[in-house]
Amino acid sequence: MSAIARLLERLQTGWQPTPDEIDREVPQHTLSAWYFLYRPGRLGEPKLVRIVGDLDGDPSATEMTDVILWIDAGQAWTLCRDGFFWLDGPESPRLGHEDRRR
After folding, report:
1. How many folded domains does the chain comprise?
2. What is the secondary structure of 23-52 as a DSSP string?
3. Taking the model in full, what pTM does it have?
């Protein structure tokens, strides 16, 4: 069983993680600019989008994670297939809200 699968099992019990308690094999990232992306029928499974630059028409300003496996109810963190993401700040309204309406 992978470190991410073990972490998912712990999260599903209601356990609240801290950075020091997450297996070192699981990459951890802190995002200050991000949004969730899910468009039923078009994209498949939900993903997290990291904003890495200025969004003004530049598609290279974002990076998409792998599929989201678990999201904290308060949106403080999310576990994806490619790592654990601490969400520092609220969801970005720039694109996240627009994409949800499509």
Report:
1. 1
2. -TTS-EEEESSEEEE--TTTT-S-EEEEE-
3. 0.79
